[in-house]
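Q: What structure does this chain adopt?
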Amino acid sequence: MDNQKFINKCKQLVAEYANKHLDKTDNVSIDQSNVYVVWSAKTLQNNKALLSTTLFDGMYYELTFNGDKKELYFDAYKKFENIKFDIE
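A:
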């Protein structure tokens, strides 16, 4: 799978997942234009990307394509804290 096809598929899956898990009473939905890539890499036939959305829900998503098995793995994470440490 080429990199752009992978990224497009990731954005589609993240938008679908987010919409499925949003509170329906909020009357909010997103599309692929609300999904952005934080980081991505391609090594040989494999791809990995970290994505997030414009929603203020603290979620981020890790998608990995295994080119040997033609499988795409989807992980959804919730950010709980951001702690600063001063290092001297």
